[in-house]
């Protein structure tokens, strides 16, 4: 080999090696640039490790779940599945269609893992109040205004917003505020609290819990109808109604009518939205919007300042506001709902609900014993009630289904007969 | 140059380059191995970016804080500081010693950033209940048992534990439960709720809020003393007392005595712990233990099953439990408290409190107008009250201090005269 071809050979080898060097250096510099995590690394790694545990698609492991002797988190399985990785199907298992756990949205949040996760620092918002002295994140309040504007289900302009532990806490806050303001406070007898049957059972149990001198649960709205002289009442209006899906309107009217609109299900995945609601007191909850029932986050939209202030007073003295972790998470989740074309989550939710509803309809259409309550299609494509029809009418629909390993919720819980039963289709 | 020396030169260059290549490859492989974060990256990076914003040591930026027009989070400054990076001192500013914001522990959590952060996945615990149907994390319950065992401030064996929104929610849950169980339920008159002055003002305002038929706030315990025949009462016992730091004991005794022990401050950073408390109903809160007031997390330790069940009923109907984010965070924080020699946080907290107390004592010792209430040293090294002594007695200590730009909390708020004022020393 002559000297120049030898040199060429060396030069080629060296050039290749140097090029590889340069590529490697660029890779290292780039990775150093993006991989600059320090104090968040431990929490991030732990979360990814737990999330990577396989539960066969029938369960999930959580950061705060029980662990095996080796410290490995244990899968928490969906109903009817068991085993360390939830792979074992339980034959003849009982289907729980009682609980309204909105787990049907869990796959959506797994698909949007990156944008929906939050990292909470150990020093995040330790104080009692926000900087402005309130108990409410201004960013989250803004996101809620934007959400209703986008969805078009409630008019929030010139109204006050406050937060509570789900709509649960806000129901009683509203009853407290309305029974302490304006016309009722001069009355000697307690304000009557009513709802139209079938109604959400918590209206009754919560109102009765504290046995207040100021208000009293008085059952169905019909007990007050045609008693226009008796204006000392508060009516819960649930729209669409839980359990029967009807788009209820207020029954009791008049100059002194006070209504609490429970709009938990007034979202496009459950019902068509004919127009934005524009009522004086409207309640919403994250549970039924994004499926985060465990976060216990709800909000009230209130027109009257005095009523709003009374509700704030109730929340202050009852729990001193909603945890800052929860407000941070709700903000993150709403930002995901509002990103892109602002319809992704609603499309996912509606498609899932529609497919479940179609399956249930199909199964029940083969039955001569059970039927689904019919709702006008233009108003409501989603309902959750099964009704015993003629020719054979069961006095106790709940127990008939229970014998077939299906747990529903008895009609009596909603103030109607037990020939009705609510079957929940929002679970996993 | 001869051929062999030329070859040697090439060989050396190539060898160096290949070695660099190998090193780079090892670095890249190692970094790929440790840097395997995927869906948590976005949240982790955002959190670190916000945490890295400089607020001159007089404030902090939060993930959910307000942002500038460029989307940069704005610093939230401590009292008396202002400017975009909290570097501007406000002359003659008002010192707010009213709020009991326990921000003095914030530096501890910044020092322990890695171990105290949590990553909450978008799908974390969406359901209403835990796997066992309860609203309570078993892991967190276990950590609380361990905590009291370690600190030695409460005997939790053979007792029930439930969670609430701070001790705030649990105060009323306890009053509800005790007024609905056993001896009181047969009584026609409402159960009297009392506390020894000076007492925490929420006892009064919260008990009066709902105007229940079952219970009624009746002021100072002295109103019931020597009325042994009247056993229909609930006494709040605050130990150490807020505001005066005394290690209170129950005043009202007898066969039917029912007491709610508010032990919010019964931790080694505030008071010596002579012995574990072993009362029937004890309340604790994360706010005063770790400083996370904004998390609204408290727990009750209850001996009697019926009372426990009534309290659970109250929490269920009032808010349906404590948010899962909050329970996850509380678990993480308690695990930090319990790690290592289990004394790191308490040492930090005690040192900070001691130094503040010494400064306050020093300042007030030069005054002939104000004095600090003296507590026996072996019982209490930490107290928060300033008392107007002879020779010159101010009728309104609050307003005298207010004129000097110091906001305290009036004695009247605690059921005593305004010649007393509470100055909080736990803030930032």
Automatic annotation (TrEMBL), chains A, B:
UniProt family annotation? Belongs to the alliinase family.
UniProt organism field: Anisodus tanguticus
Q: Name one GO molecular function term.
A: transaminase activity
Q: Which biological process terms from the Gene Ontology are attached to this UniProt entry?
A: amino acid metabolic process
The keyword Cell membrane is annotated on this UniProt entry = no
What are the UniProt keywords, alphabetically?
A: Aminotransferase, Membrane, Pyridoxal phosphate, Transferase, Transmembrane, Transmembrane helix
Cofactors named for this entry? pyridoxal 5'-phosphate
Recorded protein name is Alliinase
The family database entries (SUPFAM superfamilies) matched by this protein are listed as:
PLP-dependent transferases
Tree of life domain: Eukaryota
Q: Which residues form the Alliinase C-terminal domain?
A: 95-427
Q: Which InterPro entries match?
A: Alliinase_C, Alliinase_N_sf, EGF_alliinase, Ethylene_sulfur-biosynth, PyrdxlP-dep_Trfase, PyrdxlP-dep_Trfase_major, PyrdxlP-dep_Trfase_small
TM stretches of this protein: 7-29
Q: Which residues form the Alliinase EGF-like domain?
A: 38-93
């Amino acid at each position: 080999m002559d000297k120049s071809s030898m040199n060429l050979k060396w030069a080629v080898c060296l050039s290749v090696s140097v090029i590889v060097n340069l590529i490697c250096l660029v890779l290292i510099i780039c990775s150093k640039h993006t991989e600059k995590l320090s104090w968040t690394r431990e929490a991030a790694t732990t979360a990814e490790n737990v999330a990577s545990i396989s539960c066969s698609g029938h369960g999930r492991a959580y950061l705060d779940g029980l662990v095996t002797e080796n410290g490995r988190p244990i899968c928490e399985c969906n109903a009817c599945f068991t085993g360390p990785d939830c792979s074992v199907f339980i034959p003849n298992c009982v289907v729980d269609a009682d609980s309204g756990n909105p787990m049907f949205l869990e796959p959506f949040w797994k698909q949007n893992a990156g944008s929906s996760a939050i990292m909470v620092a150990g020093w995040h918002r330790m104080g009692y109040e926000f900087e402005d002295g309130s108990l409410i994140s201004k960013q989250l309040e803004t996101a809620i205004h934007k959400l209703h504007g986008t969805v078009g289900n409630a008019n929030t302009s010139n109204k006050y917003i406050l937060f509570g532990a789900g709509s649960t806490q806000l129901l009683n806050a509203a009853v407290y505020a309305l029974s302490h303001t304006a016309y009722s406070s001069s009355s000697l007898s307690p304000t009557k609290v009513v709802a139209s049957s079938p109604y959400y059972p918590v209206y009754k149990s919560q109102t009765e819990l504290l046995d207040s001198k100021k208000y009293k649960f008085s059952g169905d709205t019909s007990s007050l109808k045609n008693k226009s002289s008796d204006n000392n009442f508060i009516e819960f209006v649930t729209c669409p109604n839980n359990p029967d899906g009807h788009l209820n309107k207020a029954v009791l009217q008049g100059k002194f009518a006070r209504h609490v609109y429970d709009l938990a299900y007034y979202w496009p995945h459950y019902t068509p939205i004919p127009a934005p609601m524009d009522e004086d007191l409207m309640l919403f909850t994250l549970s039924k919007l994004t499926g985060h029932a465990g976060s216990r986050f709800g909000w009230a939209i209130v027109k009257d300042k005095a009523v709003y202030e009374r509700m704030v007073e109730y929340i202050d003295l009852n729990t001193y506001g909603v945890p800052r972790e929860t407000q941070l998470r709700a903000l993150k989740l709403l930002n995901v709902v509002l990103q892109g074309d602002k319809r992704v989550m609603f499309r996912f939710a509606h498609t899932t609900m529609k497919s479940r509803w179609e399956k249930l309809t199909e199964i029940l259409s083969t039955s001569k014993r059970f039927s689904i309550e019919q709702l006008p299609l233009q108003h409501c494509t989603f309902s959750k009630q099964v009704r015993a029809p003629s020719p054979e009418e069961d006095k106790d629909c709940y127990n008939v289904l229970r014998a077939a390993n299906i747990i529903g919720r008895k009609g009596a819980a909603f103030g109607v007969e037990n020939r009705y039963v609510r079957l929940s289709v929002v679970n996993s």
